Amino acid sequence: MKNNLNIHWETLDRYLSYLIRTFLIFRVERTKTKRLLIKRRSGNVKFYLTDVALRNAFYNRTEDVSFDSDEMSFIAENLVCTVLQRWLRGPKREEQVSFYKDRSGEVDFVFKGPNSITPIEVKWRNDMPPLKTLKKLETSWDIKQSNLITKGQDLDVREGRFPIPLWFFLLCF
Question: What are the pLDDT digits (tens) for 33-79?
Fold first, then answer.
């Protein structure tokens, strides 16, 4: 990011901390362990906007994006992150949100609580690809249930995975 913007890393870090403190962006760090980690700073992070309208304004997008599946995929993942981050701001929350990444792929979010771990994958498509990284994470961490936030309408548990339509997920939180 610093190379693309052609600025010093300390300046970039300062500006990003301003955006985080003013709740314009959320920082989601990579996880490699099941444990809750305190004050961990990772070089491998993802940033999400608190409102995708900011991105549309920045890129001067005025057309309807609901028919663009790539754009809707980004918006769906961003909405899930916003919901999870706002959930964490409740009183005395001990949960964390991170993401998992290995050589085979990525799991969008890992919601860690004191006694539970829930991987969350966001897919905005009609044809569901095999979720190899999610399955690998469930196996290696011995996780019995994960959530799949989808474009679809079904609410059936399949292979220990609970697919939830995005609209329903947003209503629940």
Answer: 777 665 556 568 899 998 888 888 877 777 777 778 888 899 999 99
Asked if 25 contacts 19 with a C-beta cutoff of 8 angstroms, the reply is yes
In total, how many domains does the chain have?
1
Q: What's the whole-model pTM score?
A: 0.84
From residue 118, how far is each of 3, 43, 47, 58, 114 by CA, in Å? Answer: 35, 23, 20, 33, 11
Average pLDDT over residues 71-91: 87
Please give the radius of gyration of the chain, using alpha carbons only, rounded to the nearest integer.
Answer: 17
- What is the residue range of 166's domain? 2-172
Q: How many helices (H) and strands (E) does the chain have?
A: 6, 7
Tokens of 152: 């679809």
